[in-house]
Design goal:
It is built from 3 helices and 6 strands; from the N terminus they run ααββββαββ. 42% of the residues lie in helices and 22% in strands. The radius of gyration is 20 Å and the shape is elongated. The termini are close together. The protein has 2 domains: 71 residues; 63 residues, Chitinase A, domain 3. Helix 1 runs antiparallel to helix 2. By secondary structure, it is of the alpha+beta class.
């Protein structure tokens, strides 16, 4: 695996998410504050709902921006077969019948990128799986979900 390329793709994916959420938040806010969205009665809550939606999208955009900054600041480390898993590790897990790659990052959990036909899912140390991986080594097992650590890069 080419870790610098995977990290760059992850950051690109987060940038796209930031830009998309920011753009939609702005458009939604403009729609919610438009003259035509003015409430016609006390039961007409369209403008309020649009502004709540815009707020939620803006928070998601900020979360993506935060993830970008944290991943960019994260030191790039090479792991040997004996090093314990920590932030910045690429981990190959073997589940019953399937192997999957994970990138352990400070934030940005759920972001997926493809590299050489493999899907790499970003997880954080706060996630149930991520918390089990921190400090683990090749050969160790996770319990929920049940998996074996096959490789750490």
């Amino acid at each position: 695996m080419n870790k610098p390329e995977i990290i760059a793709r992850t950051i690109d994916q987060l940038r796209e998410e930031f830009e998309s959420r920011s753009r939609v938040s702005k458009a939604t806010r403009e729609g919610g504050n438009d003259v035509e969205s003015k409430a016609e009665s006390k039961y007409d809550t369209l403008a309020i709902e649009e502004n709540y939606l815009a707020d939620g999208l803006a928070k998601q955009a900020l979360a993506a921006a935060k993830a970008i900054a944290e991943i960019e600041r994260m030191p790039l480390r090479k792991y040997s077969g004996e090093d314990p898993v920590d932030l910045g590790a690429l981990v190959l897990l073997e589940f019953p019948g399937v192997r999957e790659w994970f990138f352990l990052a400070p934030s940005g959990g759920g972001t997926e990128v493809t590299h050489r036909g493999e899907t790499i899912t970003t997880i954080t140390s706060e996630s149930p799986l991520g918390s089990q991986l921190i400090g683990s080594r090749v050969g160790d097992r996770t319990t929920a979900p049940a998996a074996k650590i096959v490789r750490v890069e």
